[in-house]
Design brief:
Chain lengths: ~425, ~650, ~280, ~130
């Protein structure tokens, strides 16, 4: 009946060896595994900080209980374990049934432990709910709207004549050190607004007026991601938050409020010349990463660099691209304020797309290669995205995208060839 | 199996008078396919549940492995986004509704009536029906794999409005969500029917002397689980009805443009969903509460308090649902209220942990495989409970919700808790059910593989969550600091898979070739162990009379007294005409088939045709009622003097 | 579970074969009703939540609801409830005859209630309120429709129980005849309800005049014929003189049915107040 | 377990007869109460009084229904407890749901009164 003792000790030795071997992994890992760009531990704002503090309280309280209870459990297991044949066949121990005093004591202790967690929890709930009264006056209001699968950001306090509020997509620029109050809206399904380093998430729910607030302590570049499952491309619905000091923020605002940058078109003769692309495109395939270590080394600096026009930009390509943008019916969806048509609310505003550090909802860095990849093969970057599939307009009608439905089948509608793309890329990148 | 049992060689004789229409001829096969299709024996039904559940556990695990392979490295292209989404939806739905719940139901069916000294459940045919309906639901849920629309892909809690036609059905006739709705609805029917049956059985079918406070803890937990099921499933039933109305009849429940409130779905779902997680854990806790005393050779410490805390957990479980919705902007007061209520649940749960430790304390612990799984349960469940407490602090949860931290939490409680408990139970009761015992070496090997694999898989996920990795993401970028932990988790999942494969291989081998055991191999404490292995169809030759909480332990320590009592009772019982057993029936199966046909037609939006299925169902139920319970008497060979009486 | 012949004094409140003395079926029904409380609780909550936050285009229920009709339906259901309570009482005394007539009475009133509902739905649809026209339509139809389905199931159960009381005491084949009984019953019920509803519509339009009734009658000649023939058949089927297999021992079946029926009635009491009356404030 | 109580079989037939009358009377009381409800709605009273009145009547009707029509009064206490578990949970859940949706954070964007509420808030803020 009983197990051969040799194999038992072998097992135990293997287990403890494995545990020891795993130790450094876990301990060393502790540091490596908690400092990513979306870390909730390495925080950069008061809201995330208050949430982290509560988390630490829970870790301490449950940690201590774990050590205590686990210790007793280990002790009991080791002490009372049957180790040999004699133990196995020992007479039964006393058949005791319990001890109410011990029980009551432990219940009281548990309640006490929970009180320790509950107090900071309650405090933080109210703190997180809204911008503190003292900062309300100075707070910046933003409206963030989730779409399948990208984010729109509007600045209600920054109205543009005849257009409405300043609107950007996928990159939210905020002033550092100032409270930002964000209205969370969606027009289709539930999304969730999450920039871990700045604040915990709050969902964007249809027919619900949610809001959150956050503040970045210092200028910085932050990663965010949709945190509620919202359909096929949920995994690649990302965004960025860029916090700037007051002066930079003002400059940025002024630039964004201005209409799209227009590069003077060369004469007709120059336009007729065939121009080779300034880069050679290599298709990296579906799901290929769109980020670079160089960018990540100092993302804020990289972002700043992106604000300025490229010295070698080619007006001929740009002009061609501008034509293509209309010819390919991109204008039916995308607004480029001050030049082509008004666009539509369900596609990202591209007025200053060239100044963004990412495209396709924070998924790819805004480089010529990536832009090329996105506008020629959106479905490889983001299968099923609405630019490719078309945007449903309710009531069964669809605004056609790269594909359109015909007799129940999807057939190509727009296609951007590898030869045409460089012009569009140049144009889009010129929109600083 | 029945044939090999020593006592079951018995004369049988039908009850009712001769002239019965062929329609109502009761099937009598005791072996072979028909015996399984028409069975009303709670033990056979339990085995049916168990085998289906284990099959679906493998399917769900297979889906999990695909998930882990996809996530092993960043930007993987192993499966598409769409397939990945189907995978986690079906993985969760399968594991929860088709693996853990029915596996618990298997134990309820097989063990609970034995523990209370009953010959069967209160409504034997209804019991069979519950199983067949479960199978129908399982089939409906999984049809998606084989048809064009694909498997359901809206996540296991199917948040509106992603399930609305506009989003799930954009460009092609997509019925995967209809399948999901119908499948869950039918599974709900099965669970509620089964649970009503268990409630009546436990309240009403106890052996003489089996007072409520002498019920084995597993039976108590069965009772609580059954209550949780009948009281929580109506909420999801309503939610699913509303969704079904939206999809099939264009109503507006979750249509935001028409004033619909998608958040209402969340409330209705979690009013069901949180009690559901206790539905998943309480049976495992019951099993653990049987195993620890047996292998500590001591009664359960603080029995009344364990029972009471089970009830408290169940009751409080109805008041915490919104802790799954801390990020939905409920407002401070609501958030705070649900936060505190959730924390309160730690108290009764802690009480259980303390009492289990109290049970070990001062005992003689015999480290058999079931005991290993049970101890593993206590550790892992406690660990998972602590991350639950971290979630319950709403501000902290704002960072954890929908991140891998949640994934870590619930796999600790679901696998480290429910699954460990159920695997322990399989080991524990295997000798009773099959008369053979699993080899300790292989049993323990599978335990350590599972235990280590499990921790290697899910422990790193805490870090992933804290490091900002959202759940339900098919791909992630390599610059987020998530690569190592994901790879480790995937490796762990494969260790875990090997452990599971070993576990199953050992079980199968034991079934055919394992060491034979006789009555009561563990020196256990509850009534079911007084039975020969495998138990005969009628369970008890003589209904036991219960004198103490650990009834069988008492019998073993008071042998003479009990023997006398048995002899007396045997006499009276055979004077009453032998042992009454319910007859088998085709109609439960037939009714379920009607349901299957109707459901399939309905999800294809052939509403009028679906009435055919409904018709078959109603007809079957009608014949079911008309044929009556029937029944026959078993006369044990032992007391021939009373012979085959005329009735 | 005991199948021994009914002894002369059956105690209808205790079943000595069960541990608690509560008959299994009764316990089952009460547990089921506890579950049904959650069912209707969440459903009614849904309706109230959407009433709490009406959309701007929400119709005014006060203008749609007819207090007379609802009140009538409520009384009808109340009487049916009384009938079923009396049927339980009668069955416990073993008087099969009064059980039958009381069941029939319950069925008639149950059908009348359903007719009222059909009538009401017809009016609402005519006014443009459909399940998809507005949130009010959505929740109203779903809630009352679900309740109506429960009533319909109850009527079906009552009918089967009624037919069950004709089961012969000997084991003569009876199932096919009973099925025939059921089919005729269903046909008669549907025909009668249709006739009554159309008559009601006619009366509503043209006032309570002979002309209106005749008009309605003309339109439903076939149905009236079906109903009349059906009634005749039902009358014949209901004239069994032979001994039947229905006795005090079956009282628990009637009682279970009664519990279900009463509960539906009580749910209606709640609906009547929170869905209808509150709108009139 | 439970010994057959002698009281049960003796007190058997007489109450059956009176039960008939009791049930009929109860039905009449219920009918009268329903009538009262309808009248109440049209009375020129404060809203909260009417609602309290309606709810009281509702509860009384409910209790008559379950205790008399549904025999709970004569059945074992356990049946009452069993049903009350469901009833209380359902009542509590409904109350909690209504409270949650009544909160001003939960006013939907499509709500008729949303404009009114925002107006109030702006007034307060000023
Ligand atoms: C078996 C299933 C099971 C069990 C038992 C639990 C138990 C608990 N769960 Fe868990 N939970 C799930 C399954 C389960 N959960 C699932 C599946 C989800 C995710 C669903 C989804 O989104 O897909 C989830 C999600 C989930 C959330 C939502 C997270 C989010 O999405 O943001 C929360 C939040 O509060 C939570 C809390 C708790 C708590 C407090 C317990 C408590 O019951 C735990 C109590 C136990 C202990 C605390 C340990 C032992 C106690 C002691 C030793 C006493 C002393 C301790 C203290 C005083 C602290 N769970
Ligand atoms: C009881 C419930 C349960 C169980 C047991 C498991 C078991 C496992 N789960 Fe599961 N899981 C959930 C419930 C459960 N899970 C839930 C509720 C979700 C949330 C879903 C959602 O978001 O909607 C989830 C989500 C989930 C995710 C997150 C997906 C995402 O958010 O993107 C992951 C990722 O690693 C995962 C992994 C695993 C693994 C590796 C196991 C392992 O333990 C599995 C072990 C078993 C095996 C490995 C089987 C071995 C068998 C074979 C090798 C043979 C195969 C042969 C045949 C099929 C014939 N699960
Ligand atoms: Cu948007 Cu996920
Ligand atoms: Cu929960």
């Amino acid at each position: 009946m009983s197990l051969p003792f040799t194999s038992r000790s072998i097992l135990r030795r293997v287990a403890s060896c494995a545990a020891v071997a795993a130790m450094p992994l876990f301990l060393g890992g502790w540091l490596n595994w908690l400092t990513g760009p979306q870390s909730t531990i390495d925080v950069a704002g008061p809201v995330a900080k208050s949430q982290l503090d509560v988390f630490y309280v829970t870790v301490w309280v449950t940690g201590i209980i774990f050590v205590l209870v686990g210790g007793v459990l280990t002790y009991a297991t080791l002490k009372y374990k049957a180790r040999n044949a004699a133990d196995e066949h020992a007479p039964t121990p006393p058949q005791s049934h319990g001890n109410p005093l011990v029980e009551l004591g432990l219940i009281a202790a548990s309640v006490l432990a929970l009180v320790f967690i509950a107090i900071p929890t309650l405090k933080a709930i109210w703190y997180n709910y809204d911008v503190p009264a003292a900062e309300k006056q100075n707070a910046l209001e933003i409206t963030a709207t989730g779409y399948q699968w990208w984010f729109k950001f509007e600045y209600p306090s920054e109205q543009i004549d005849g257009v409405g509020p300043l609107t950007t997509a996928n990159e939210l620029v905020i002033p550092a050190g100032r409270a930002v109050s964000i209205n969370l809206r969606t027009t289709d399904v539930i999304h969730s607004f999450w920039v871990p380093k700045l604040a915990g998430k709050v969902d964007m729910i249809p027919n619900r007026g949610n809001h959150l607030w956050l503040k970045a302590d210092t200028p910085g570049y932050f990663w965010g991601q949709c945190a509620e499952y919202c359909g096929e491309d949920h995994a690649v619905m990302r965004f960025r938050v860029i916090a700037l000091n007051a002066a930079d923020y003002a400059t940025w605002l002024a630039n964004q409020k201005a209409p799209a940058r227009s590069v003077a078109a060369p004469d007709a003769a120059a336009l007729a010349q065939p121009i080779s692309a300034p880069y050679t495109f290599k298709n990296p395939g579906p799901n290929a990463p769109g980020w670079s270590a160089a960018f990540d080394a100092d993302p804020l600096a990289s972002w700043v660099k992106q604000q300025h026009p490229d010295a070698n930009e080619n007006p001929v390509l740009i002009a061609k691209g501008r034509e293509l943008f209309t010819a390919k019916t991109c204008v039916t969806c995308h607004a480029i304020r001050g030049s082509e048509g008004g666009g539509a609310p369900f596609a990202p505003d591209l007025t200053h797309i060239g100044s963004r550090s990412t495209i396709a909802a924070g998924l790819l860095e805004n480089t010529p290669q990536n832009l090329h990849r996105w506008i020629t093969r959106p479905h490889e970057v983001k299968p099923g995205n609405k630019m490719y599939m078309g945007v449903p307009m309710g009531g069964g009608s669809v605004m056609n995208g790269y594909m359109k439905a015909e007799e129940g089948r999807l057939v190509p509608n727009i296609s951007v060839s590898d030869d045409e793309a460089p012009a569009l890329v140049a144009y889009l990148l010129s929109l600083k | 199996m029945e044939a090999s049992s020593p006592a079951a060689h018995a004369g049988t004789e039908t009850h009712s008078a001769p002239k019965r229409s062929w329609l109502f001829t009761r099937p009598t096969a005791k072996t072979g396919l028909v015996s399984w299709l028409t069975t009303v024996d709670h033990k056979k039904i339990g085995l049916l549940y168990g085998i289906s559940a284990l099959f679906f556990f493998l399917v769900g695990g297979f889906e999990a492995l695909l998930i882990r392979i996809q996530l092993a490295v960043p930007n993987n292209t192993f499966i598409s986004h769409q397939t990945y989404n189907e995978m986690f939806t079906m993985h969760a739905t399968t594991m929860i509704f088709l693996a853990v719940m029915p596996l618990s139901a298997a134990f309820f069916n097989y063990i609970m009536p034995l523990q209370i000294g009953a010959r069967d459940v209160a409504f034997p045919r209804l019991n069979g029906f519950a199983f067949w309906v479960f199978l129908v639901g399982a089939i409906i849920l999984n049809i998606g794999w084989f048809v064009k629309s694909g498997a359901p892909d809206a996540g296991w809690f199917g948040y509106a409005p992603l399930t609305n036609k506009a989003y799930s059905d954009q460009f092609s006739g997509d019925m995967s969500t209809d399948l999901w709705i119908m499948g869950l609805q039918i599974l709900g029917v099965s669970s509620v029917i089964g649970s009503l049956n268990f409630i009546v059985t436990i309240i009403n079918m106890r052996a003489p002397g089996m007072t409520m406070m002498r019920l084995p803890v597993f039976t108590w937990m069965t009772l609580f689980t059954a209550f949780l099921i009948i009281l929580s499933f109506p909420a999801i039933t309503i939610a699913l009805v509303e969704l079904m109305m939206d999809r099939s009849f264009n109503t507006n429940f979750f249509e935001a443009a028409a004033g619909g409130l998608p958040i209402l779905w969340q409330h209705l779902f979690w009013i069901f969903g949180h009690p559901e997680v206790y539905i998943l854990i309480l049976p495992a806790m019951g099993i653990i509460s049987e195993i620890l005393p047996t292998f500590s050779r001591k009664p359960l410490f603080g029995y009344p308090i364990i029972v009471f805390s089970g009830a408290t957990i169940g009751f409080l479980g109805f008041g915490v649902w919104s802790h799954h919705m801390f990020t939905t902007g409920m407002g401070s007061v609501a958030t705070a209220a649900f936060s505190l209520m959730t924390m309160a649940i730690a108290v009764p749960t802690g009480v259980k942990i303390f009492n289990w430790i109290g049970t070990l304390w001062g005992g003689h612990l015999q480290m058999r495989t079931p005991m290993m799984f049970a101890l593993g349960f206590v550790w892992m469940f406690m660990f998972g409970g602590f991350s639950g407490i971290m979630h319950s602090a709403a501000p902290a949860d704002a960072q954890q919700q929908d991140s891998y931290f949640v994934v870590a939490h619930f796999h600790y409680v679901l696998i480290g808790g429910s699954v460990f408990g159920l695997l322990a139970g399989i080991h524990y009761w295997f000798p009773l059910i099959f008369g053979r015992k699993v080899s300790e070496f292989w049993g323990k090997l599978s335990f350590w593989l599972i235990f280590i694999g499990f921790n290697v898989t899910f422990f790193p996920m805490h870090f992933l969550g804290l490091n900002g990795m959202p759940r339900r993401t098919a791909v992630y970028d390599g610059n987020m600091g998530w690569n190592d932990a994901n790879l480790v988790a995937t490796i762990g999942a494969f260790i875990l898979a090997i452990g599971i494969v070993v576990y199953f291989a050992v079980m199968i081998r034991t079934y055919f070739k394992g060491e034979m055991v006789s009555i009561d191999p563990w020196d256990a404490r509850t009534l079911e162990w007084s039975l020969p292995t495998p138990p005969p169809e009628h369970n008890y030759d003589v209904l036991p009379t219960v004198h103490a909480r650990d009834a069988y332990w008492y019998e073993k320590t008071h042998k003479a007294e009990i023997a006398k009592e048995h002899a007396e009772h045997a006499k009276t019982e055979s004077a009453h005409g032998g042992i009454h057993m319910p007859s088998q029936s085709w109609f439960p199966l037939l009714a379920a088939v009607g349901l299957l046909i109707g459901a399939i037609l309905f999800v294809n939006h052939l509403f009028l045709w679906a009435i055919i299925g409904g018709g078959i169902f109603v007809l079957a139920v009608y014949f079911w009622a008309a044929e009556g319970p029937g029944g026959y008497h078993v006369h044990l060979d032992g007391d021939d003097s009373h012979g085959h009486d005329k009735h | 579970m005991s199948t021994h012949a009914a002894s002369d004094a059956i105690d209808h409140h205790t079943d000595h074969t069960t541990t608690t003395g509560i008959p299994n079926k009764k316990l089952f029904m009460w547990a089921f009703l506890a579950s049904d409380c959650m069912f209707f609780g969440t459903l009614i909550s849904t309706h109230l939540i959407y009433r709490l936050h009406q959309t701007p285009n929400s119709p005014d229920p006060k203008k749609l609801f007819s207090m007379d009709l609802t009140l009538f339906a409520t009384f009808v259901l109340l009487i049916s409830s009384l009938f079923v309570a009396l049927a339980v009482n009668a069955s416990q005394k073993g008087s099969v005859k009064s059980v039958r007539s009381l069941l029939l009475g319950t069925i008639v009133f149950g059908l009348t209630f359903l007719s009222c509902q059909v009538f009401e739905y017809g009016n609402f649809l005519a006014e443009g309120l459909t399940p998809s026209s507005s949130m009010f339509g959505t929740t109203f139809f779903t809630l009352t429709g679900t309740h109506g389905c429960h009533v319909a199931i109850g009527v079906l159960w009552l009918t089967l129980m009624y037919i069950r009381t004709f089961k012969p005491a000997d084991e003569r084949p009876w199932v096919l005849r009973s099925l025939g009984h059921l089919v005729v019953f269903a046909a008669v019920a549907v025909a009668s309800v249709t006739i009554v509803v159309s008559a009601a519509h006619a009366v509503e339009e043209h006032g309570f005049t002979a002309g209106a009734l005749a008009h309605a009658g003309q339109h439903n000649l076939v149905l009236i014929a079906v109903a009349l023939v059906g009634y005749a058949i039902l009358y014949c089927l209901g004239r069994t003189r032979k001994a039947v297999d229905f006795s005090q021992a079956n009282a628990i079946d009637i009682e279970s049915l009664g519990l279900y029926w009463h509960f539906i009635d009580i749910v209606w009491i709640v609906i009547f107040t929170v869905v209808y009356l509150l709108e009139f404030l | 377990m439970s010994a057959p109580s002698p009281a049960l079989s003796s007190g058997h037939d007489a109450p059956q007869e009176s039960k008939f009358h009791l049930l009929v009377q109860m039905a009449m009381i219920l009918a009268v109460m329903t009538g009262m409800e309808v009248v109440l709605v049209y009375l020129p009273l404060a809203k909260w009084i009417i609602i309290t009145g309606l709810m009281t009547l509702l509860v009384i009707k409910f209790i008559i229904g379950i205790f008399l029509f549904m025999h709970l009064k004569w059945d074992k206490l356990f049946c009452t407890v069993l049903f009350l578990i469901g009833l209380i949970l359902a009542g509590g859940t409904s109350a909690a749901l209504l409270a949650l949706f009544n909160d001003h954070d939960s006013v939907p964007l499509t709500s008729k009164d949303l404009s009114a509420i925002t107006a109030v808030q702006t007034v307060k803020a000023v």
